[in-house]
Amino acid sequence: MRDLAQGVARFQEDVFPAKEGLFAHLAAHHAPHTLFIGCSDARVVPELITQGEPGELFVVRTAGNLVPAYTPGANGVTASIEYAVAVLGVTDIVVCGHSACGAMTALAEGHDLRGAPVVADWLRHADAALARTTGTEAGPQKVGALVRQNVYAQLTNLTTHPCVARALAEKKVTLHGWVFDIGTGRVEALDVSGTATALAS
Q1: Where are its TM segments located (predicted)?
Q2: pTM recorded for the entire structure
Q3: How many Å is the maximal CA-CA distance in the chain?
Q4: For 116-167, what is each residue's pLDDT tens digit?
């Protein structure tokens, strides 16, 4: 906690004064352009990766960047998606997977999750990705393949949400799949054909 408190002090003394005008504007305006769905992993920081300013990204972070398919009823992930799309009117949605993902590693390597039953149940949202991953890869290659397939699977799950389906039909939102490599800082953009291109070298 001491490090966090020192960080808050630095923010208040150095960062906030330099962006005081921006924060004054944000105090009364909330209009992010992108819903960024990423992993809860502490090494994956959307605002750092994109170098975005405060107010630009509406961020949802879940273990494994998983997006449950739509079901009626209260759900924190679903509510956040609906708010971003239907209320805030974001024009882009990014689902971002990443290298060395603990959730995907657990699935790819068949880890024993009996001690974490809620985690095991949550990871069922990646069943489709696991089914699409061929058995030819091993080790890091298998994890990497699953990470990519999982991004596609979660994009598919997104389209089951009525607000997203409606926005797509009305051409008001665009979906994007990314994979962030922690070790190199590279970000790959996945397309519907399954190929990947670097966003920046």
Answers
A1: none
A2: 0.91
A3: 54
A4: 999 999 999 999 999 998 676 666 789 999 999 999 999 999 999 999 999 9
92 labelled ligand-binding:
no
Residue 130 is inside which H or E element, if any?
helix 127-132
- Whole-number Å distance between alpha carbons of 13 and 77: 34
Instruction: Report which DSSP code applies to 109.
Output: T
Residue 41 assigned to a binding site = yes
Q: Give the tens place of pLDDT for each residue, 63-81.
A: 999 999 999 988 999 999 9
Residues with Cβ within 8 Å of residue 42, at least 6 apart in sequence: none
Beta-bridged to residue 96, according to DSSP, are 178
Q: Which residues are catalytic?
A: 39, 41, 43, 98, 101
Centroid of chain to Cα 45: 10
At position 69, the amino acid (one-letter code) is A
Structure tokens at 120: 């095991």
Query: Residue 165 to residues 30, 89, 98: CA-CA distances in angstroms?
Result: 23, 13, 26
Separation of alpha carbons 200 and 172, rounded Å: 26
Question: 188: which 2 tokens?
Answer: 């790959």
